[in-house]
Amino acid sequence: MTTLLHIDASVRAVKNDNPAHDSISKNIAKRFIDSFAQHQAIDEYIYRDVGVNPPPFITQDWIGAVFTPDDKKTTEQKQILALSDLLIAEIAGADIIVISSPMYNYGMPAQLKAWFDLIVRINKTFDFDLARGDFPLQPLLGGKTLIVITSSGEFGFEQGGIREHMSHLVPHLRTLSKYLGVSTIHEIASEYQEFADTRHQQSLENAYSRAKELALHLSYVAA
Could you say which cofactors this protein requires (predicted)? Predict the structure, then answer.
């Protein structure tokens, strides 16, 4: 039984009247999922396009509801947390999580950050105990596989790359992944988009090939 949660974060659609405006990250994610489904049945597929349909930002009332004990939450507070509860349930039930995201201003889109803010939640995806000393936060979920698919206009954001110090997308996703219960991370990246040269085309082709190969590998693991 495989449950796959797919989160797309680009504000662009998969297909547009002008192909130059097609979302690169969404199309690579689609290649991965289509390839995976060819080899392994996806028993439940959950899809959220947070780029086109962004979740709301958290508010003071939201935080107040989170820190109110369950037996004292008002009806209004339960309603405020309803979407968060649903998103967390989707994560808890997933075996494989796919997050595709462009790099916006060297980090993740605000829409994707809003999704994370709704799900990184005390006593739901982590607990807090000062007895642990300087590391009181402990994730509550585990055993999940994450596929991170990114696209960027420049290049060299990988570890050891010339722009590693400017990369705030994948490192942020790696840090937050533990609150998704992730134990294994696979990364696929397309670069050079703004250069629009042969390097971009090669990077894109490599990303599509990597998506297909990784899908085949994970389908065998799932089987």
Answer: FMN
Question: Please, are residues 184 and 146 in contact by the beta-carbon 8 Å criterion?
Answer: yes
pLDDT over 70 percentage in the chain:
100
Residues 6 or more apart in contact with residue 24 via CB below 8 angstroms:
10, 102, 151, 190, 193, 204
- As assigned by CATH, the class of the 3-222 domain is alpha beta
Kindly give the interhelix angle for 82-93 and 110-119, rounded to the nearest 10 degrees: 90
Q: Which of these, 15, 36, 9, lies nearest to 213 by C-alpha position?
A: 36
Question: Domain residue spans in the chain?
Answer: 3-222
Residue 23 annotated as binding site: yes
pLDDT at 1: 80
Is 24 flagged in the annotation as binding?
yes
Q: For residue 38, give Cα distances in angstroms to 32, 35, 112, 213.
A: 10, 5, 28, 12
In terms of pTM, does the model score above 0.85?
yes
10 has binding-site annotation: yes
Query: Mind spelling out the 3-state secondary structure of 98-147?
Result: EEEEECECCECCHHHHHHHHHHCCECCCEEECHHHCCCCEEECCCCEEEE
- Residue pLDDT, tens place only, 4-55: 999 999 999 999 999 989 999 999 999 999 999 999 999 999 999 999 999 9
